[in-house]
Specification:
Layout: E1 23-26, H1 29-34, E2 41-46, H2 63-72, H3 76-93, E3 94-104, H4 109-120, E4 125-132, E5 148-155, E6 166-167, H5 171-177, E7 180-181, E8 188-193, E9 205-208, E10 211-214, H6 219-227, E11 231-232, E12 241-245, E13 252-253, E14 257-258, H7 280-290, E15 296-299, H8 306-313, E16 317-322, H9 325-339, H10 345-349, E17 355-357, H11 363-368, H12 371-381, E18 385-386, E19 398-400, E20 421-425, H13 433-446, E21 450-455, H14 460-473, E22 476-481, H15 482-488, H16 490-493
Parallel strand pairs: 1-16, 1-17, 2-3, 2-15, 4-14, 15-16, 20-21, 21-22
Antiparallel strand pairs: 3-5, 4-5, 6-13, 7-8, 8-12, 9-10, 11-12, 18-19, 19-20
Helix pairs in contact: 3-4, 7-8, 8-9, 9-12, 13-14
Length: about 500
């Protein structure tokens, strides 16, 4: 049975001499995990891409990344073959007192369970958690709707951290059982039985308030509690009972069915537009249950960084890995915006900031990444918001919202704001006049006074057309080269 460990004092320093924390690594997690020493992490949560026949648009509607996923995981066996060496490495870096959570869905969960039993051992499988992520929507098919995800919870030994989590009692339960209210304090309470189920206890057999019973407490303890108002007799001759206050109860223990945490809805404040984004509340529960303050949390498939944000908010150390440069920049921006952390090498060295490692840092590297990654990287590097859809974008790959374009209190999305500037990105050696002509048409259609065009270089015809467009319409197109971005480190500052 797991042991509940005492909470540690939070620290801004390094919790481990073996590894650096508050670091996001960009790259294949198999390569990154092999660089970590044995048994250095307290808690691991992973939410890898599911082996699913659904048309997952893995990042903001990008079909190319979806196709590459389908090619790589053409079958369940291919998916397991992909995940097995990664799970072996994750088991290696997990401390003997650590916990491991694998988030998946019904398409491959049974095969994942067999794989994890082989790696972690069947005896260290703790729980299969069912997270109800949505309500049934369509019932046109002849089956039961699949509306849940599965989270497999393993440990590396029988000596592990587990902090019991509780849910508040529902109103119906409270009204039914905690029906008494103290007039002096307003505290709700119920009456609990004080009689002893073991009738053969002569030392606890006595008369109290005119009632003789075998009691749970000694007579002295009973008298002390009565004088404090904890034990009461509702009427003469009634069996005395103990007040059990509602505000002293921890609630209902969280079990293996999690139906109280909704998915990230379209209007949710935390929503980033990432299709498989998990709610912060889900990661909060896992991290609270299986780690203590200053423990090290690892997410090897970071996505948009929910586990990292939850870990930072809960005073844990963390380490993140993701193969997507775009995802790494998105989660870095999220850490700055939500957690108010600084992305700064000097601050990180003294335990206060965070860093992102191994991002593409040269024009050569940027030429080699997929086009959708390049577009997202460039837009985010300028401080913009990439388009949700990549098909039919009508010449606009993203938008920049100036500081003056503040959301209205009654709206939750950026799309309603009229003050924005378009961004167009081309992953080509030289942007030509036809590219500028198309962008001009988009600016005229949207009636934008200013726009940004990103490319590796611009032809002389393109530059002349930009000047002519300004003279003719008064609208400004700002040509920005990749060298401009890299030299000014805009990608890291996300100004």
């Amino acid at each position: 049975m797991g042991k509940k460990k005492k909470s540690k004092t939070p620290s801004t320093g390094k919790p481990s001499s073996l590894i650096d924390t508050r670091v996001i690594f960009c790259g294949d997690n198999l390569d990154q995990l092999k660089k970590l020493p044995d048994e250095c992490v307290d808690l691991i949560y992973i939410d890898p891409p599911f082996n699913s026949n659904r048309n997952y648009e893995v990042f903001w509607g990008e079909t190319k990344e979806k196709r590459s996923f389908e090619d790589r995981h053409a079958s369940t066996q291919a998916y397991i073959d992909f995940m097995r060496p990664r799970c072996v490495e994750l088991h290696r870096v997990l401390k003997k007192t650590g916990s491991f959570y694998y988030h998946c869905d019904w398409h491959a969960s049974h095969y994942v369970k067999i794989m994890l039993d082989q790696i972690f051992g069947e005896n260290f499988f703790q729980t299969e958690i069912i997270w109800r992520r949505t309500n049934a929507k369509g019932l046109a098919f002849r089956s039961f709707p699949n509306d849940h995800d599965t989270i497999f919870y393993y440990t590396k030994s029988n000596d592990y951290t587990f902090n019991r989590q509780y849910l508040p009692h529902d109103e119906k339960y409270i009204n039914q059982f905690y029906k008494y209210i103290e007039p002096e304090t307003g505290r709700r309470y119920r009456l609990a039985d004080l009689t002893n189920p073991n009738k053969n206890r002569p030392n606890l057999t006595y008369e109290f308030l005119g009632v003789k019973r075998v009691w749970r407490w000694t007579k002295k303890r009973m008298q002390d509690a009565y004088e404090k108002g904890i034990v009461i007799q509702t009427k003469a001759g009634a069996v005395p009972a103990m007040k059990r206050y509602l505000d002293e109860q921890e609630g209902n223990p969280v079990d293996s069915i999690w139906a109280d945490i909704p998915p990230v809805q379209a209007q949710a404040q935390e929503r980033l537009g990432y299709p498989t984004q998990k709610p912060l509340a889900l990661l909060d529960r896992i991290i609270k249950a299986s780690s203590n303050e200053n423990d090290i949390v690892l997410d090897a498939f970071c996505g948009c960084g929910t586990a990292l944000v939850a870990a930072e908010n809960l005073n844990r150390q963390w380490l993140g890995i993701d193969i997507s440069p775009t995802s790494c920049r998105v989660m870095a921006k999220r850490l700055r915006d939500v957690c108010k952390m600084k992305e700064d090498e000097k601050l990180w060295r003294i335990g206060r900031g965070f860093v992102v490692r191994d991002l593409p840092r040269s024009e050569k590297q940027l030429r080699e990444i997929p086009p959708f990654e390049f577009e997202n990287w460039a837009v985010i590097a300028l401080g913009g918001v990439p388009n949700v859809a990549k098909v039919g974008d009508m010449g606009i790959d993203g938008r920049i919202y100036p500081v003056s374009a503040m959301p209205k209190k009654d709206k939750g999305e950026l799309g309603f704001m009229d003050v924005w500037y378009p961004i167009q990105v081309k992953q080509k050696d030289k942007v030509g006049r036809p590219d500028i002509d198309s962008f001009e048409a988009a600016m005229m259609r949207e009636d934008r006074s200013q726009g940004f065009f990103v490319g590796f270089a611009f032809s002389s015809d393109a530059m002349r057309e930009i000047q002519a467009f300004l003279k003719k319409t008064g609208k400004i197109i700002r040509p920005i080269t990749i060298k401009d971005i890299l030299d000014e480190q805009i990608a890291y500052k996300l100004a």
